[in-house]
């Protein structure tokens, strides 16, 4: 397991959207979709604005691995579930509201109990 480097963390903080592609059971990537992400300290998180029934989120259940990409950055990541009742979600709600404040409707959805139930920590992995 590796960590995000400072340049990657800064890029994540300054970028609104990334592509995320979960891996299927056979190890191939699903079709990438655009999601929002937030940085909290040295960690990166994402949620499903459409809740746990969103196809991309359901896809993360198969292997809990995938890829993210944006702005020239391409990383293999592990998806780590964060419980909806974990206190970190309050900080993540604030981070989403701050970063995406100009998108009132989607921010309301992504910070709702349904959105919080899909919180994933993205943990970068060493490339083979």
List keywords for this structure.
6-stranded antiparallel barrel; 128 residues; Pnp Oxidase, Chain A; 5 helices; 6 strands; alpha+beta
Overview of this structure, please?
The protein is α+β, with helices and mostly antiparallel strands and 128 residues long. The chain has a single domain (6-124), classed as Pnp Oxidase, Chain A (Roll). The protein has five helices and six strands, in the order αβββαββαααβ. It has a six-stranded antiparallel β-barrel with strand order 1-2-3-6-5-4. Strand 4 (65-70) and strand 5 (73-81) form a beta hairpin. The longest helix has 12 residues, at 88-99. It is globular. The N and C termini lie close together (12 Å).
Describe, in short, the structure shown.
This protein is an alpha+beta fold. The protein has a single domain, classed as Roll (Pnp Oxidase, Chain A), CATH 2.30.110.10. It is 32% helix and 30% strand.
């Amino acid at each position: 397991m590796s960590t995000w480097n400072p340049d990657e963390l800064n890029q994540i903080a300054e970028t609104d959207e990334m592509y995320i592609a979960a891996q299927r059971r056979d190890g191939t990537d699903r079709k990438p979709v655009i999601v929002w992400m937030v940085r909290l300290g040295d960690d990166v998180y994402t949620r499903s604005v459409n809740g746990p029934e969103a196809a991309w989120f359901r896809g993360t259940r198969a292997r809990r691995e995938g890829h993210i990409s944006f702005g020239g950055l391409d990383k293999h990541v592990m998806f780590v579930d964060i419980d909806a009742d974990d206190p970190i979600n309050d900080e993540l709600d604030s981070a989403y509201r701050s970063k995406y404040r100009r998108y009132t409707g989607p921010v309301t959805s992504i910070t709702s109990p349904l959105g919080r139930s899909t919180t994933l920590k993205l943990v970068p992995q060493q490339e083979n």
